Amino acid sequence: MKLIAFKYRFYPTNEQALLLAQTFGCVRFAYNSTLGFSKEQYDLGNKTNYNDWSKNLTLLKKNVDFSWLKEVSSVPLQQALKHLDKGFKSFFKSGFGYPKFKNKHNHQSASYMSNGFKWDESKQALTLAKMKQPLKIKWSRSFNGTPSSLTISKTKSGKYFVSILVKENINPLPVVNKTVGVDVGIKDLAICSDGTKFNNPRTTNKYAKKLAKASRSLAKKKKGSHNFNKQKLVVAKIHEKIANSRKDFTHKMTSKLVNENQVIGIESLKVKNMVKNRKLSKHIHDANFGEIVRQLEYKADWYGRTVSAISQWFPSSKMCSNCGAIYSGKWSLAIRTWSCECGVTHDRDQNAATNIHIESLRLLVA
Hints:
About 45% of the residues lie in helices and about 20% in strands. It is globular and about 80 Å long.
């Protein structure tokens, strides 16, 4: 049994949209006020945790000035505190991503546990707490089982989505007698040891001119005016198109790799360190390296495949895959082909993919 999130678009009524707007606002307020409370207490020398935050939220609800917090379900408010708690734990574990205050102009979301909604499987009707009617959801695919939790979200372009978490049985794919090493890059997004190449779609560059034109038009509008809001929506839709195109390509590529190979060798990349290179940071973000690895790992876990990650310090590019010798000259990104003393001429990326393949298999049997 695996926990799987099924995401659907839905179309709220005016009454539902109003309640969702209130819920998003209350969730954001609960999160931001709790984060501010935590910082204030820390400056005073006091450490706080989820229990302290929950007590503080109760006091806020009793305050006459914040009585509107009672108009929405209490479940997403408590979930906001749990998300903040998770954010702090992640920060203390990795040292990255200190929780930030949420902005009402960005992506909005609210999470519900099973006590915050009603699911009628026979009618396929999902009704949130405080709502009289079920949501009008576009059921693009079916699922079995009972939802354990869900997240309602609204994009900056004004679209509503519900992500439903369900426990599902996933049948492993048939075992195949094929393994592959994958080297990710910017020129070609992924190069495989079997010769397969996935061209880099360069999604950001594809829409760069259109986005720049829309952004210039937005900059000329008076902030807060009707035309400003209209143009802001245009810009948001372009950004959404870029993100969706990138996500679609990544899913198709990782699915193909998982479907066709039993073992997939990849390189452990520290993307946070890689993007410190100002000349390449934009291209690295657009290439979606981190998401590629994440998708390969969870899809391999679902379908009975194996992902073998080699060290980021392994010299995959400058090691000869024929004799194992290391390139002795000065190494740089400009070198796309090189010749080894053993007489073999290597394509940089293809050689790296071959070495990743060999090393990943060695690590599995070691």
